[in-house]
Amino acid sequence: HQELIGRLQGMFPAAGHEQIAQALRLAAGDADRAVSILLSGSQLSMAGATDVDDTVETFVVYDLFRAFWTRVVGLFFREIAERNAHLIPRTGPVMFVVAPHHNQFVDPVILLMHAMRRVYFLTAAASMRRKFIGFYGRCLRGIPVERQQDLARRCSGKIFLEDRFAEPTVISGHDTRFTQEVQVGMKLMLPNSVGQARVEAIESDTRLRISSEMRELAALELLTQAGGTAYKVAPHVNQDDMYRAVYDRLNKGECIGIFPEGGSHDRTEMLPLKAGATIMALGATAANPELGLKIVPTGLNYFHPSKFRSRAVIDFGQPIDVPAELVEKYRQGGDAKRQA
Questions:
Q1: Residue 99: strand pairing partners
Q2: Could you report the per-residue pLDDT of 194-227, keeping only the tens digit for each?
Q3: Could you give the CA distance from residue 30 to residue 43 in angstroms, rounded to a whole number?
């Protein structure tokens, strides 16, 4: 049986171990019938990972939509150069960590054009709730991620640092209403994503404390300028369902795509990377030491991105194993977990 699974994996490198085993079960062990099932994908249940997925999706639906969008994007570019796609593992769970993130619609498709595996992307839940984008996102088995910035709201007044050296974690306000509009645990966010911090304590309508100082130069410029700066707050978001969905996909030998900057942008430099990809890799491996997860760093750049028939390049790096010593630290929790 294992030899037969191995032969089928050689014939269908994009299919995970679980899908091949499922095809064999449906075919009652008949190899020829299993091949037919894998070719069509119509009998393999590919239901979405969260409550947002309310329909049963199959390989054939995914492949049809993937083929459609890769051809559409291919028409826009004169050339999409690819480097090192041969490094992508042909079997087993893979996490593609892609940056910089220029366009939330085009970037995933370019990866799909050059990865021989089926890749399922983490997608902003706000986008998945939109009628058109949500439909295609579900067909491509996207995993919804509720982002704090999508839930952020503008608050009254302006904030500033009264003494950035003596009290760098004390935020003061002009015409603010911290006691009414802000709660402990919320994220305090500055314009253009230049800085953010968790609200640690609210002392009055015009004074609160954050968990750590904002050290970014752009953030300090806003907080020390005359008159202060506008700001937003976002509630804490529980991501347990999202992490469970990711772990489930990886345990099935599937591939996940993530843009660790947390949002698309048109800057020449990368945004600070979020911790989500690290937590997923460590958490999945800690829960299943035999997982064998590979992380594939992926670079993506455009030449004249808004120009028709321009060029782009995608470069796949050497797959990275999740270090066992970091997994052990993650299991310990507390400070060791944060260090990992």
A1: 299
A2: 899 999 999 999 999 999 999 999 999 999 999 9
A3: 15
C-alpha triplet 86, 80, 91: angle, nearest 5°: 25
More confident call, 266 vs 2: 266
| Per-residue tokens: 90 | 């042909």
Residue 47 per-residue DSSP state: -
Chain centroid, CA 134 distance in Å: 16
Query: Across the chain, where does the E strand assignment appear?
Result: 77-83, 94-99, 119-124, 143-145, 153-154, 158-161, 170-174, 187-189, 196-204, 207-210, 232-234, 255-258, 294-303, 310-316, 320-321
Rg, the chain, Cα only: 23
pTM for this entry: 0.72
Using CA atoms, how far residue 337 sits from 87, 130, 242, 262, 302, in Å, is 30, 36, 20, 22, 37
Q: How far is CA 295 from the centre of its chain?
A: 13
Q: Could you please report the per-residue DSSP string of 188-257?
A: EE-GGGS-EEEEEEEEETTEEEESS----HHHHHHHHSTT-B--EEE-----HHHHHHHHHHHHTT-EEE
CA dist 218 → 148, 193, 194, 195 (Å): 20, 10, 6, 8
In DSSP notation, 66-90 reads: HHHHHHHHHHHEEEEEEE-GGGS-S
